[in-house]
Design brief:
It is built from 2 helices and 6 strands. About 5% of the residues are buried. The strands form 2 sheets. Strands 1, 2, 5 and 6 form a 4-stranded antiparallel beta sheet that branches. The chain has a two-stranded antiparallel sheet with strand order 3-4. It is α+β, with helices and mostly antiparallel strands and about 80 residues long.
Length: about 80
């Protein structure tokens, strides 16, 4: 009787571990996307909000032929590149 309970317990434990490892694998696909966020949010807050691994400012050239690069803004929100 004790062996049967032990086998069932081990089976359930391994099943749970398998499901958890599979769920965490979905966050490591390496995709990148652009989002617009409020200026008062910090990088850490944006990372946790979007479940991302890395965040960088989304920058573009201001005019053609210019070397000046600035972060893109839309409706007073800053743009960010998220890598998940």
């Amino acid at each position: 009787m004790l062996k049967a309970i032990f086998k069932t317990l081990i089976t359930c434990l391994l099943s749970v571990l398998l499901m958890l490892s599979n769920a965490s694998a979905f966050h490591k696909d390496g995709k990148s996307k652009q989002v617009y966020e409020n200026t008062e949010l910090t990088k850490k807050q944006i990372l946790s909000k979007h479940c991302a691994l890395k965040i960088t400012p989304w920058k573009e050239k201001q005019t053609e032929g210019s070397d000046f690069i600035s972060q893109v803004k839309k409706n007073e929100k800053l743009s960010w590149n998220l890598k998940s």
